[in-house]
Design a protein that fits this description.
Alpha-D-Glucose-1,6-Bisphosphate, Chain A, domain 4, 106 residues, alpha+beta, 4 strands, 1 helix
Amino acid sequence: MRAPKEFGGQDMYSTWEYKKIVPMERIEYIHNLADKDGNKADPVKLGMPAAFPQDLRNLVTFKELGDGKTELTVTEYDWTVGQMMEMSKMGMEQCVDKMAASFAKA
């Protein structure tokens, strides 16, 4: 991911530690910021505000809608309402957009 310009515009790396995968139904994972080598990193040391949580729980669910369509729902836990939550939403939207573009090429 790339941070917004007002926060330096630098590339940001993260890790996802998968906790549970139920094919065609759900993926549960823990998200952390990382260095470029994939090592868990303290968000504050990366220039993020102290409100950026570590060990962020995530749930992705899939719901078959018919006609070859699937609804994807992403739930991030542990955020306090505010600017950091909004930035996370922007980052997740980037991820989903990239994933959708990748599937469109297939």
